[in-house]
Amino acid sequence: MPTEKFMNLGDYKKQAILDAMHTEFMTTPYSEIRISSLIKRAGISRASFYLYFESKDDLFACMMRQRRERLEQGLVEAFREKKGTFHESMELLVERIMTDESYRDCWEFCRRMLEDETCREVAVRTEAEFGGRRLREKSEKECFEAMDRTGYGELNEERLRCAIEMGLLVIIRISMLQLDQAADPRELKNMAYQQFAILDRGIRD
């Protein structure tokens, strides 16, 4: 993960470096990305790069975590704002994901990562290194605490976690379809809402 020196940089400079990696990542196969091209885009020296990161993979992990945290934050915000049912919270998240451009970068990144075999291997390794599972569990716990569980019987954190993970798979699918403009957005929303309603009934039993 990034060094303390990187974390102490101003937000503008940090983002400029991450944006440079994003541009390279979206246009160049991961195995062909070179530190020389990254530092040129970011406007920093090679020495500075290695003060901030151990390697290209380290920088990628930082970029990956930033997007992961954005999605996790959106999930928790939806549950806190609705303070109600599972399907209402997930529907709000879908609405925001499909209309807020800040999420588009997350899905473009995700699709690119899935398409690049080398990148997938790095992603799996770095997910464990930066505690991606712990990050998800923390956000799911916060969703459970924010939710109005009236009418959900014996719902516990584990059952809600499974429902959220299945719901996020639905969201990933419709987001990929939206990027490809493969269906009308209203149809995609309705498809997601139907799946959320099924999941909601499942965790009420």
From TrEMBL:
This is HTH tetR-type domain-containing protein. The lineage of its organism: Bacteria, Bacillati, Bacillota, Clostridia, Lachnospirales. Coiled coil: none annotated. It comes from Enterocloster alcoholdehydrogenati. Gene3D superfamilies: Tetracycline Repressor, domain 2. Residues 34-53 bind DNA. Residues 11-71 form the HTH tetR-type domain. InterPro entries: Homeodomain-like_sf (IPR009057), HTH-type_Tx_Regulator (IPR050624), HTH_TetR (IPR001647). Keywords: DNA-binding. It comes from the Bacteria. PROSITE patterns: HTH_TETR_2 (PS50977).
